[in-house]
């Protein structure tokens, strides 16, 4: 089959040819022409136009052409579903859909800037999408750096469930969904906010913010996360030789100053004082008051 679209591709017009060649027709011919010539050339060459207005293979509502190819050819592949969010986010500037979307846009724009020959650009783009697909298929759950702040959200949920079980309290329906949301966000390595959670739960963020303290140690969403970060920091101080600046980074604080301020607010001493007490072989918990 022959497929034709606008020249100077960046996202959809590279992603769709990759999808065609890898899942629909390995021998497909991709043709790039000036936008005003796409329909005329499609008729002359017997090619199928895509990613242009008023044709079948194009954008529909908030979805891009890549989405339509997947739906049209019933490509049921979890990795493609993951990839479709990244492509859609990059192609429509909806970078909130996937954390990889802004990166894909940056790489695609850079490639288009560096390579002026569309066929050469396509060949390089195919390699990029092969790599993205392999990541989505086999490596999505692999983290480059362990002990990142994202993992703390899972700790929040499990500690909450344990607490609720011990207290025999009924778990609210919105909290039951929280585990899946948190795990999904961790899996794609994205920072979760109260807004993100509320949108997925379809529960007003003001309500979650108000009710959160009742189920999480009488702390706000932000305070509870900060508390867990400090607990994680203490674990790293006690079990590793990381610098305090490195621990601040690994536990999600904006900088060491922010880390020190929050640590001192909770433990009445600075992280440096806590670390010094450990080196002096004085058990910190015997010297440091905890609020």
From TrEMBL:
Q: Does the keyword Ubl conjugation apply?
A: no
For this UniProt record, the keywords arranged alphabetically read as follows: DNA-binding, Transcription, Transcription regulation
Task: Enumerate the spans annotated as HTH araC/xylS-type domain.
Answer: 176-277
Instruction: Kindly give the SMART domains that the UniProt entry links to this protein.
Output: HTH_ARAC (SM00342)
Q: Which InterPro entries match?
A: ChrB_C (IPR018634), Homeodomain-like_sf (IPR009057), HTH_AraC (IPR018060), HTH_AraC-typ_CS (IPR018062), Tscrpt_reg_AraC-type_HTH (IPR020449)
Q: Which GO terms describe its molecular function?
A: DNA-binding transcription factor activity; sequence-specific DNA binding
Question: Can the keyword Cell membrane be found in this entry's annotation?
Answer: no
Cross-referenced Pfam families: ChrB_C, HTH_18
Q: Which protein are we looking at?
A: Helix-turn-helix domain-containing protein
Lineage start: Bacteria, Pseudomonadati, Bacteroidota, Sphingobacteriia, Sphingobacteriales
């Amino acid at each position: 089959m022959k497929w034709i679209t606008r020249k100077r591709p960046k996202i959809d017009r590279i992603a769709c040819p990759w999808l065609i060649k890898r899942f629909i027709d390995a021998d497909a011919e991709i043709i790039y022409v000036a936008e005003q010539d796409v329909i005329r050339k499609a008729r002359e060459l017997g090619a199928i136009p895509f990613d242009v207005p008023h044709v079948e293979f194009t954008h529909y509502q908030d979805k891009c052409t890549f989405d339509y190819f997947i739906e049209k050819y019933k490509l049921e592949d979890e990795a493609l579903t993951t990839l479709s969010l990244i492509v859609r986010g990059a192609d429509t500037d909806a970078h909130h859909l996937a954390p990889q979307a802004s990166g894909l846009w940056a790489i695609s724009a850079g490639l288009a800037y560096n390579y002026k020959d569309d066929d050469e650009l396509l060949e390089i783009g195919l390699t990029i999408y092969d790599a993205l697909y392999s990541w989505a298929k086999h490596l999505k759950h692999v983290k480059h750096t362990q002990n990142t702040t994202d993992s703390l959200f899972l700790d929040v949920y499990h500690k909450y469930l344990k607490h609720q079980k011990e207290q025999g309290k009924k778990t609210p329906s919105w909290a039951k969904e929280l585990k899946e949301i948190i795990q999904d966000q961790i899996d794609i390595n994205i920072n979760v906010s109260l807004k993100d959670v509320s949108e997925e739960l379809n529960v007003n963020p003001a309500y979650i913010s108000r009710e959160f303290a009742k189920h999480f140690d009488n702390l706000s969403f932000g305070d509870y996360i900060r508390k867990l970060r400090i607990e994680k920091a203490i674990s790293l101080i006690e079990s590793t030789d990381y610098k305090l600046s490195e621990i601040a980074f690994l536990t999600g604080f904006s900088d060491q100053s922010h880390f020190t301020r929050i640590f001192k607010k909770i433990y009445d001493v600075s992280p440096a004082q806590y670390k010094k007490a450990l080196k002096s072989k004085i058990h910190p918990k015997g010297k440091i008051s905890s609020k």
